[in-house]
Amino acid sequence: MSARSHSVMAESFDRPTRCTGVKKIGFLSFGHWSDTPHSRTRTAGDALTQAIDLAVAAEELGADGAYFRVHHFARQLASPFPLLAAIGARTERIEIGTGVIDMRYENPMYMAEDAGAADLISAGRLQLGISRGSPEQVIDGWRYFGYRPGEGDTEADMARKHAEVLLTVLEGDGFAQPEPRPMFPNPPGLLRVEPHSPGLRERIWWGAGSNGTAVWAARQGMNLMSSTLKNDEGGAPFHVQQAEQIRAFRKAWTEAGWPREPRVSVSRSIFALTSDLDHAYFGDDSDSTDKIGYLDADTRAVFGRTYAAEPDVLVGQLAEDEAIAEADTLLLTVPNQLGVDYNTHLLDDILTHVAPALGWR
C-alpha cells in the first residue's frame, strides 16, 4: 500500500464521513407570547395550544420533529412535559423533544418520572435535549427553585451532576430500599423510579456550546444538540466551527466505545421567500452574516447567520454549510408568534422546495 493510501486512510479515520443525504427535519419553537398588536400568540395558553396544533400540522406535512426551547421566568415555554405528553397523544409518528432543558433547575428524579410518562404516552418518540443552560432573565434563577452548587462547584458543575443522575436513573436499575410494610406489594429487590420507559436513556441529547462540552457529552453517551450559537473557538465562520465541534464529538464517541451510532442535530433559521408576505417578514435578512456577541463578561460567542432567500438561492447557500452536512437532524427555528398557519407554510416551503433539491428528502 502506498504512503498516500496510508495518509488517506488515516485522514478518513480522524475525520468521520459527513452525514450527507437524507436528514430528519423538525422545527424548534421558543414558544414566545406577548399581548401586542402584531402577535398571534397573546397568552401562555395560546403558546401551548398553538404548539400542539403546529406539531400536528408538521406531522401531516411529513416533518420529523417538534422541539421546544425551555426558559424560566420568561414569557416562553417553561414546563415542557405536559406539552410533550399532549403532543404525543395527538400525533402518531413525529419525534417530540426539547432544545433544551436547563439542568440547573431540575430535580433529576422528578424529571425521570415526567420524561418516562411523556415517552410512554408517545410510544417512545421523546428526544430529550438538556444542557447547563443559557443566560437568564433573573440572577441565579435556579436558587428560587431550591438549588445551589455544592462546595467548590460552579453552576455548570451542578447542571452536569444533575444530568449524570438523570442518566443513571433512566438506566432503570433499582436503587431505593423498599419499605418492609408497604402500602402496595413491591416487586423483589431494590426499587426504581416509575414509570420507566425502556430506551429513553439513548434518546437524551446534550446542548453543547463548546467543543469541550461536546466531548463531555460523547463520553456520557448522549447525542449532540448544537444550536445557532457556540463559543467562538478560533474565529472561523460559525458553520465551520460547528462542524469541527461535531467531528470532535464523534471522535470522542468512538474512543468511548459506545456500541450505537450517535445522533447530531443543528439548528438554523431558514426562510424560503416564496410570497410577498415572506419578503415583508424576512426579505431584509437576505444578506445576513454571522454575528459576534458575549454570553457573559468572559464568553465570546459566534451566532450563526439567518438564511432567507428564494428557494433556488437557498439550495446553493445551504449546500456550503459544513455543519448541516455533518448532522443527521436539522431543526428549523420558527417565529411562533406569527401563528400556526404561517409557520406551517414556512415548514412546507422548506420540505417541498429546498430539502429535495439538497438530497435531504
Automatic annotation (TrEMBL):
One of its GO terms (molecular function) is monooxygenase activity. InterPro entries: Bact_Lucif_Oxidored (IPR050766), Luciferase-like_dom (IPR011251), Luciferase-like_sf (IPR036661). Keywords: Monooxygenase, Oxidoreductase. Pfam families: Bac_luciferase. The keyword Nuclease does not apply. Gene3D superfamilies: Luciferase-like domain. Residues 30-271 form the Luciferase-like domain. GO terms for cellular component: cytosol. This is Alkanesulfonate monooxygenase SsuD/methylene tetrahydromethanopterin reductase-like flavin-dependent oxidoreductase (Luciferase family).
